[in-house]
Amino acid sequence: MTHPETTSVLGRDGVELQLTDIWRRLLGRDDVGIHDDFFSLGGHSLLAIKLTVEVRRLFQVDLTAADLLAAATVAELAEIVRGGTAERQGQLVRVQQGSGDSPVYALPPVSGTVLLYPPIARAMGLDQPFWALQSLGLLPGEEPLSSLEEIAEHFIEQLRTVHPDGAPWNLIGYSMGGLLAYEIARRLRERGERVGLVGLLDTRITVEPSGDPDFALRALLWRGLRLELDVDWLRGLDPGTRAQVLVERAVAAGTMPADFDADRLRRMIDMYQHNLDALTAYEIKPYDGPVTVFRVTDRSLEGGTLPADLGWSEVAEQAVVIDVPGDHFTMVEPGQVEVLGRRLREQLDTMSAAAPAS
What we know:
GO terms for molecular function: hydrolase activity. This is Alpha/beta fold hydrolase. This protein is an alpha/beta fold. The chain has three domains: about 5-85, ACP-like (Non-ribosomal Peptide Synthetase Peptidyl Carrier Protein, Chain A, Orthogonal Bundle); about 90-205 and about 280-355, Rossmann fold, CATH 3.40.50.1820; about 215-280, no CATH class. About 40% of the residues lie in helices and about 15% in strands. It has helices at about 15-25, 45-60, 65-70, 75-85, 115-125, 150-160, 175-190, 215-225, 230-235, 240-255, 260-280, 335-355, and strands at about 90-95, 105, 130-135, 170-175, 195-200, 285-295, 315-325. α1 runs antiparallel to α2 (about 45-60) and α8 packs across α11. The protein is globular and about 55 Å long.
């Protein structure tokens, strides 16, 4: 949240002055104050990655996505930089503190990361508490879990550490993250807990195994690193050379932190494939509650006719379909995500008003 009385404060020491300058250049704005929120000023996942590169170059401090989400102002980020280290926060990331007592929990898509969720959270309103989870296995020393069921149980344990007593569980997930949200909701309801919004952001009921052996590489290349390289050429390189080429190109493009090495890049590729394998092996079970499917209006990428509710009425007690603009990818990008956030908030408020008091 912006602090009106300090918005004009552009830095109280050399660290804050340099960070403010980086933000000005990345955001294309002159009105950056040390207490302004990066994402509220127009920051998004690609700019956040570029920010980590700039901080590494200036201060030799490594930041994670969790660091940027937890320290979203210049003043907060400066504390991390001055300390010389960026503290790891595990899988659970507080995207926005908010002021209410009914938080939303967002589950990771196939990439395993959380950087797509801040714009959604802010579009829901700065008063909305919002947490996101990133996949286990992205950071050095972590080993991914082997099934979606295990992942769901692990995430429930993580969320219990912050979940308010008596509050409903509101869960959302983009694309394949929706299947995680569904499985967590199903398990919680089986245990007699209150489940509120189960928001499935253009999530299909099943995930078909990919016939493309290079799916993980293509997904990381085009959606994660934003690089236009020939996949056939990359496939012809030995694994070590391929990883080094991708690291060099991504660092040069500003889509990968400068301290990334080939091992971390391989971990990112493996995460795409690992999550996809876990989700394609998942055997969905019935859920005795409602789900809300946020369905894109531009369905030109689907390559066939899918049911309006993407099949969720087959397993859920009720499937409510809410139209949102864009296609599967642009629905979470600027220009479309604002509508998605408003529709999510409307559904959350509607369910909260209809729910009995705890």
